[in-house]
Amino acid sequence: MFLWFHKMASPRFFYRLAEILIPWFAACTAIIVVWALYLGLIVAPPDYQQGESYRIIYVHVPAAWMSMFVYMIMAVSSAIFLIWKMKIADIVAEVSAPIGASFTFIALATGSLWGKPMWGTYWVWDARLTSELILLFLYFGYMALRTAIENRSSAARAAAILALVGVVNIPIIHFSVEWWNTLHQPASISKLDTPSIHKSMLIPLLMMMGGFKLFYLVNMMSRARTAILEREGGASWVRERMAQDRL
Q1: Is the dihedral of CA 11, 170, 55, 102 positive or negative?
Q2: What is the pTM of this model?
Q3: How confident is the model over 113-122, as pLDDT tens digits?
Q4: Alpha-carbon distance 102 to 113, whole Å?
């Protein structure tokens, strides 16, 4: 376990591992997402209350879940970077920020589209919506902080601290519908004993969540490989690899 951990600390090892995994993850992403969309948009029956409009959950729910998941990846990577000074952890946190921000924006946009027919308005200052909007601002703040400080090491440390401080917003997002009286509906798939959603709707939703996670991994590793080449441009293994690619 510790040997693997130390190997992952090497940008060279991560670069080669990502090169192997990306094609497989990309293929699995395409298959899972396409199949899940078919099951969710065509096979699954309409909801007895919301009709066809409920089908937006197949994008909204996975995007909202990924917005929090990616931020947790950023926070954990930032902690590893601050404690063990692992360069690859800082790279993972940096390249994850725009991906997480995109998921958060999609969650807010699709939630607004769903809210119009359900609530009669695109936006309300609901606890869940407001805390999700704060999460988007945290992503923007993280990215802005990294670009605002010229010294890369100082920027990385400052952004890592911000990422860790912002973690407090994640449980607020998750438990907001339980802590406060909100318009947002409670969780439908976290009740393992008696889920509130029929399996014909639940299965494609879980598949989409898995597909979104694989999509994140593909994008994160692709961005990380580019960042590694930029940061390790003077390393001998990078020059050797670039020479091989030109052949």
Answers
A1: negative
A2: 0.92
A3: 988 888 888 8
A4: 17
